[in-house]
Amino acid sequence: MIDANVPYLTRYKIVHEAISTATKLDRLVIVSINGKKAMRYEHFRLPIPKFVEFLRTWGEAGVVKTKTKTATKLTSKGSSCMFVGYAGFHAGDCYRMWEPERNYIYITRDVLWLKRMYFNKQLPSHQE
User: Which of 52, 90, 104, 118 could form a Cys-Cys staple with 82, CB 3.0–4.6 A?
Assistant: First the structure.
């Protein structure tokens, strides 16, 4: 969360998402058990998850499509969100996106990636 520039008090809202994603990614690390090198998924004879082909950086910014068929033309068509994980029991390109304004998690694959982190890096303030 430090590398994603998440403000200190905001971290408490999404710490469970960070831990869940870190656990999923930790199982992808190649380890040696009884002389055999493989991912933990392979050691325990589990299928490799579908999201492996669609890895993203935790904390990356994206715009999630929120427009419905009945929405008027002047309403907002998307929400700026932060990537916080991979959706379980969905296709590999289905992401968990957190919208801080409403504190809501979208599970979607309709994401326009902004190729930057959601929170900007805070520069240290110099007090004189």
Answer: 118
